[in-house]
Specification:
- By secondary structure, the chain is an alpha+beta fold.
- It has one domain: Alpha-Beta Plaits.
- It has 4 helices and 5 strands, in the order βαααββαββ.
- A hairpin with a 4-residue loop joins strand 2 and strand 3.
- Helix 2 runs antiparallel to helix 4.
- The protein is elongated.
- Belongs to the MoaC family.
- It catalyses: (8S)-3',8-cyclo-7,8-dihydroguanosine 5'-triphosphate = cyclic pyranopterin phosphate + diphosphate.
- This is Cyclic pyranopterin monophosphate synthase.
- Pathway: Cofactor biosynthesis; molybdopterin biosynthesis.
Length: 157
């Protein structure tokens, strides 16, 4: 069998046993963006969407998504998150909104999946709230930027 940790010696899917690992402070940051039409971008920026505050709702959705990662990804551990933060930056030239999700815990396993889930749910919420104006939006470049803690230490893109 390969070096994949989520399979036993017979190739069956397993949840990794982390009971012998040390608890450490763990943090992960994931980013992604959504590109949209100029009209849609301006409505989001100016708060002119009929469904309400797009970025405010997307922020809460991203936080909720990070907290529910273990319910969505079958082999993820249930984690007690100590921090979930969503930040936005708006690119007026490209009509693109970038979201960054930072997740932190003290635990035996990392929070990369929680950060990636949080940013994806955030971007999907923006799409959902804006699709009446622009069905052609594109979710782009979702990726892990940094993770700290655990045996492997710091990893940075």
């Amino acid at each position: 069998m390969s070096n994949f940790t989520h399979f036993d010696k017979n190739g069956n899917a397993i949840m990794v046993d982390v009971s012998e690992k040390n608890e450490t402070v763990r943090e992960a940051i994931a980013i992604g963006s959504i590109k949209m039409s100029k009209e849609c971008f301006l409505k989001v920026k100016e708060g002119g969407m009929k469904k309400g505050d797009v970025l405010g709702v997307a922020r809460v959705a991203g936080i909720m998504g990070a907290k529910k990662t273990s319910e969505l990804i079958p082999l993820c551990h249930i984690l007690n998150l100590s921090k979930v933060e969503i930040d936005f930056s708006l690119d007026e030239v490209e009509c693109k909104i970038e979201a960054a999700c930072t997740v932190k815990t003290v635990g035996k396993t990392g929070v990369e999946m929680e950060a990636l889930t949080g940013v994806n749910i955030c971007l999907l919420t923006i799409y959902d709230m804006c699709k009446a104006i622009d069905k052609g939006m594109e979710i782009l470049e979702v990726k892990l930027m940094k993770k700290t803690g655990g045996k492997s230490g710091v990893w940075e893109r």
